[in-house]
Write a structure and sequence with these properties.
The complex is a heterodimer of chains A (267) and B (342).
Chain A: H1 3-18, H2 23-26, H3 29-44, H4 57-68, H5 72-79, H6 83-90, H7 92-96, E1 100-102, E2 108-110, H8 111-137, H9 139-148, H10 153-184, H11 191-220, H12 236-254, H13 257-266
Antiparallel strand pairs in A: 1-2
Helix pairs in contact in A: 1-8, 1-10, 3-8, 3-12, 4-8, 5-8, 6-8, 9-10, 10-11
Chain B: H1 10-32, H2 36-53, E1 58-59, E2 66-67, H3 72-79, H4 81-99, H5 107-127, H6 137-166, H7 173-205, H8 216-239, H9 251-258, H10 260-264, H11 275-287, H12 306-341
Antiparallel strand pairs in B: 1-2
Helix pairs in contact in B: 1-4, 1-5, 2-4, 3-4, 3-5, 4-5, 5-6, 6-7, 8-12
The chains are: A mainly alpha (267), B mainly alpha (342).
Chain lengths: 267, 342
C-alpha cells in the first residue's frame, strides 16, 4: 500500500529538481536528449567482457552532476529499486560462463564475473543518464523538444496529457484504496473488490476525460495549443559544448582510454 | 517484463525501435481518421489510469502475493488496438524516464513485447471476435484469460529471443525460456482475471462504454482473420516445426518402455491380444494412410523421410479441420433453423 505514496513523492521530487536553475538546466532540451541517447548507445555497445572501457563514461556523468548541482544520492535512490532485477538476471553469468580472465600471470577470475560487473556498470551508467536528463529538463520541456524534433504531435500531446493527469490520478487511486481498505479493515482488497474499486476509478476517469475534451474544445476549437509557439534558440556556446561532449564520447567508445593510458605512461 | 538497456545490444535495440516506430506510425495514421480531439484527452487519462492501476494491488488467495492490472489488454478493450498501443507506448516512455523501469534504448523492445502482442495479436484474434455486449460473465473471463496468457507468453518469448540475440547474458536460451514462460503463464491468468473484473464491472455500470461493437461486418472479418491465423499457424507447425520433432518416444511410450513391469514381463497388458484386439488392429492396418507418420513402403525397416512427417502433419491437420467443419456445419444450420421458431 506504500507504493502509491512513494511513487507520488518520487515524481514530485523530480519535478522540483527540474525547476532548479543551473547551466545544465538551461541547456537546450533537444541537445540533452540527443547526448543522452548517444551516451547510452556508446555504453551498451561495449562487448560483454569490456569493463575498463566503461570507466571514462563516469566522467560525463560527474560533469553533468557538477553542472546541475543534483545530489548523487537522488540518483542512487532512483537506482535502488531497479538494481535487484538487474542483479537477478546478471548473476546467471557467473553460473553459466566459466571461462577464465587472467588479471596477472597467476591470478584469474571467471569471465562470468567480468560480464556480471559489466552489466551492473552499464546499468548504473544508462539509468543515471536517464535520471539526469529528466531531472535537469522536466517533462514539459522534453515533450516540447520532441515536438520540435518532428515527433508526431498526437504522440507528444498524448505523452504530455498522460503526465499531467498522472499525479492527480495517483492521488485519487491512493485515496480510493485507503478509504476502501480502512472501511473494510483489510490490507488488500480481494479480486472482486478490486474490480469494483478499479471500475469506479475508470468511470471517474471517463468523466474527467469528457470534461477535459469539452474544455479543450471550448478554448481552442479543433486546433488546441498545448505547447508554446516560441522557437527554441540554440546558443553557440551550448552547441560547441555539446559538440565537444559528443566528440569525447565517440573517442572514449573507439579508444579504450584506461588501456591507452597504461600503454602510454606505464610502459 | 520491462527490459533494461544493459541487457540488449545496439543492433537488437535499434531493430526493435524501428519495428515499434512503424507500429506507432500505423496507429497514428489510423487514429487520424477518427475524432482525435476527443480521443487524445481520453488516451491521456487512460494512460494515467493504467499507470495508477498498476499500483493498485489485490491479494491472491492462498499465495500470500498480490496481482495488478497489466495494461496492454485492458487498453485495447477500452480504447481499441491503435489507441491502446499508443497509450501503452506513452506509459512505457514515462516509466522509462521517471522510474528507469525499462531503458530508453530498450523502449522499442518493451513497446513491441508489451504492446504489439496484446493490442495487435491477442485482442483482435482472441478477444474481439468472440465477445460482445451479450456475452456471459464466464465467457468474458475465459477469453480475457486466454488473450492475456497468449499476449504475455509471446511477449516473454520475445524477451528471451531479444536477450539471447544481444549476447549479453550467458544464460542459455532454453534455461531462460523455462524461467520466463511458466512465470508469465501464472501472471497471464491473474492479469486475465483482473481485466475481466474491470470489464464486467464497467459493463454492469455503464453498458455502452465497453464491448459495444456495432459493426457486424468488422466482427466477421476479425473472426475470419483469427481462423486464417490459426490455419497459418497449423500449417507452419505441420510443415516446418514438425521437421524438428524429437525422434525419442513420448512420455507414455517412454514410461512403458522403462517400467519394471514391461522389463520383467514382456507380455504386458498392452501387448496382450484377444480377438477384438486383432480385429481392430486389422481394420486399422487397412484404413491407415500414413503409418507412423510416413508413406507406406514395402520395406518396413526403411527409415522414413523427414518430409513425409511434414506431409503427415499437413494432411492430418486438414483432415481434422474437415471433420470439425463436417460435424459443426449441420449443428449450426440446425441452430439457425430453430431460432425463428423461438
Amino acid at each position: 500500500m506504500r507504493i502509491l505514496p512513494r511513487t507520488i513523492n518520487w515524481l514530485d521530487q523530480l519535478e522540483v529538481l527540474s525547476r532548479q536553475s543551473s547551466i545544465a538546466h538551461h541547456w537546450d532540451a533537444r541537445l540533452k536528449i540527443l547526448l543522452c541517447l548517444i551516451f547510452q548507445i556508446c555504453v551498451i555497445s561495449f562487448p560483454a567482457y569490456s569493463l575498463s572501457g566503461l570507466v571514462p563514461f563516469l566522467f560525463f556523468l560527474v560533469v553533468v552532476i557538477r553542472l546541475s548541482g543534483i545530489s548523487p544520492l537522488i540518483l542512487l535512490k532512483g537506482l535502488l529499486p531497479i538494481l535487484p532485477f538487474i542483479l537477478l538476471l546478471g548473476i546467471m553469468n557467473p553460473i553459466f560462463d566459466e571461462g577464465r580472465f587472467y588479471l596477472t600471470k597467476h591470478y584469474s577470475i571467471s569471465l562470468g564475473w567480468v560480464s556480471f560487473f559489466s552489466i551492473i556498470f552499464k546499468s548504473v551508467l544508462t539509468i543515471s543518464a536517464g535520471f539526469l536528463l529528466i531531472a535537469t529538463t522536466g517533462f514539459y520541456a522534453i515533450c516540447q523538444a520532441l515536438k520540435s524534433m518532428k515527433v508526431p504531435q498526437i504522440l507528444v500531446t498524448q505523452l504530455l496529457l498522460t503526465y499531467r493527469f498522472l499525479i492527480e490520478l495517483l492521488h485519487q487511486a491512493n485515496t480510493y484504496q485507503i478509504a476502501f481498505c480502512q472501511r473494510r479493515g483489510i490490507k488488500k482488497p480481494s479480486l472482486r473488490e478490486w474490480g469494483a474499486i478499479t471500475g469506479h476509478f475508470f468511470l471517474s476517469c471517463m468523466m474527467k476525460s469528457n470534461h477535459i475534451y469539452q474544455s479543450i474544445y471550448a478554448r481552442g476549437g479543433e486546433n488546441p495549443v498545448f505547447f508554446d509557439n516560441n522557437k527554441i534558440n540554440l546558443s553557440p556556446v551550448q552547441a560547441i559544448f555539446s559538440l565537444s561532449f559528443f566528440v569525447l564520447m565517440i573517442l572514449c567508445r573507439v579508444v579504450n582510454v584506461p588501456i591507452w593510458l597504461e600503454e602510454t605512461f606505464l610502459n | 517484463m520491462h527490459m533494461a538497456d544493459s541487457f540488449i545490444s545496439p543492433a537488437v535495440g535499434g531493430t526493435m525501435w524501428a519495428f515499434s516506430a512503424l507500429l506507432v506510425a500505423l496507429s497514428i495514421k489510423k487514429l487520424k481518421n477518427q475524432n482525435t480531439l476527443k480521443s487524445i484527452p481520453l488516451m491521456g487519462v487512460m494512460g494515467a489510469f493504467i499507470f495508477a492501476c498498476q499500483m493498485l494491488n489485490f491479494s491472491i488467495p492462498g499465495t500470500g502475493s498480490s496481482g495488478h492490472l497489466g495494461g496492454g489488454m485492458i487498453l485495447a478493450i477500452l480504447l481499441g488496438p491503435y489507441a491502446g498501443f499508443l497509450t501503452l507506448s506513452s506509459v512505457l516512455i514515462i516509466q522509462a524516464l521517471f522510474f528507469a523501469d525499462g531503458g530508453l534504448l530498450a523502449l522499442g523492445c518493451n513497446m513491441f513485447n508489451l504492446g504489439f502482442y496484446t493490442c495487435f495479436i491477442a485482442y483482435p484474434l482472441l478477444f474481439r471476435p468472440f465477445i460482445n455486449q451479450e456475452s456471459s460473465k464466464t465467457k468474458i473471463a475465459i477469453f480475457s484469460i486466454i488473450a492475456c496468457i497468449v499476449g504475455l507468453q509471446l511477449g516473454a518469448f520475445s524477451v528471451v529471443v531479444e536477450t539471447t540475440a544481444s549476447g549479453i547474458t550467458a544464460l542459455p536460451f532454453d534455461n531462460f525460456l523455462w524461467l520466463m514462460q511458466p512465470i508469465h503463464l501464472a501472471i497471464g491468468v491473474v492479469e486475465g482475471l483482473a481485466t475481466a473484473a474491470v470489464v464486467l464491472f464497467v459493463r454492469q455500470m455503464e453498458p455502452n462504454l465497453v464491448l459495444n461493437f456495432s459493426d457486424k461486418q468488422e466482427k466477421k472479418q476479425a473472426r475470419a482473420l483469427t481462423f486464417a491465423a490459426l490455419a497459418a499457424l497449423t500449417l507452419l507447425f505441420g510443415t516446418v516445426v514438425s521437421l524438428f520433432a524429437s525422434e525419442h518416444p513420448d512420455g507414455l511410450e517412454w514410461s512403458i518402455e522403462k517400467s519394471s513391469v514391461a522389463e520383467s514381463q514382456p507380455e504386458t497388458q498392452l501387448e496382450q491380444s484377444s480377438d477384438i484386439h486383432e480385429k481392430l488392429a486389422m481394420i486399422q492396418s487397412k484404413t491407415e494412410i500414413m503409418p507412423d507418420y510416413a508413406l507406406p513402403v514395402a520395406d518396413e525397416d526403411a527409415e522414413p523421410n523427414r518430409y513425409e512427417t511434414s506431409l503427415a502433419g499437413v494432411g492430418g491437420s486438414l483432415m481434422v479441420g474437415a471433420f470439425i467443419v463436417a460435424v459443426c456445419l449441420p449443428l449450426k444450420s440446425r441452430k439457425k433453423k430453430q431460432q425463428p421458431s423461438e
